[in-house]
Amino acid sequence: MCASDRLFAPHPLRAGLLAATLCALAGCGSGAAPNSPEAAATAAGSPAAAPAVTADAPPAASRRANAGEANAAAPAGRAAIGTQLLSHPDDLQVVMLGYRLRGIVPPLAQWAEGQVVVQRANEFERAAVLQSERDRLQSIYDGTAGVGRLRLEVRSRFSEYDGGRGGYYFTAFAPGSGFQFSAQPASGMRERVGVQVDNEEELNFWPLDAATAQDVLSKDNGTRSVTLDSRFRITGASQDSGGTTIHVRLERYAIVSQRYQSPTVLGERVFEDAGE
């Protein structure tokens, strides 16, 4: 997948309906299929979603304390990978997560000073505005403490039915898939982070018998356009001349149709136990 592709759905799913439907799918999945010669890069937009963690997550103060204990045992220059789920992050959140996974605190004070709102504030308001921006950026960074799993919505299309293999191919999750995040934390600054999917399994083939495949196409109103509500496990982070890369393994995705703006789960693929 080329670095210029945008890989998130521009309109987040209706969380309540989708969560209720996904509960019925917990534990189901299919085995991996051989590598397919057919695949193409996915295209989508990046949502401006707020940080989110699982419902049973501890309070923020506890998460920071637990993360601090884990980091104490981590190798120098690297933070321990936690277990918290970060759902639908925006670009700046992922940039912050990249810093944390590398064991580096980002230059939050410098970023705060570079905010346009601070630069435009008059001399009577500037100190208060600056402090507000510091607090905002610190809160975003604190929200990455203990994160070890990601949930992203990936927009995709599926192919015509392959009768020989028995299934559909997705344009998303072709071999070597990766996501690119780019944030401007302050005026004149730009930070980029890649998220690399390292699974060896074939991720973009959906095995279905012909009758089920025909029913899926009907439920999707023949659009062949879906959202893959995807869960990833973070395995590490690296840094090179191209920037920071967060390495992940895809655990599962639900295949969701947006027909008539009403999310309908058409199926699910599971590659490893994602837990709940």
Explain how this protein is built.
- This protein is α+β, with helices and mostly antiparallel strands.
- The chain has helices at 15-25, 60-72, 91-101, 108-113, 116-120, 126-142, 210-219, and strands spanning 84-87, 147-157, 167-169, 178-183, 191-197, 205-207, 225-240, 243-257, 264-270.
- The protein has one domain.
- The chain is built from seven helices and nine strands; from the N terminus they run ααβααααβββββαβββ.
- The chain is elongated, with a radius of gyration of 20 Å.
Please give a quick description of this structure.
Strands 1, 2, 4, 5, 7, 8 and 9 form a seven-stranded mixed beta sheet that branches. Helices cover 26% and strands 26% of the residues. It is elongated and about 70 Å long.
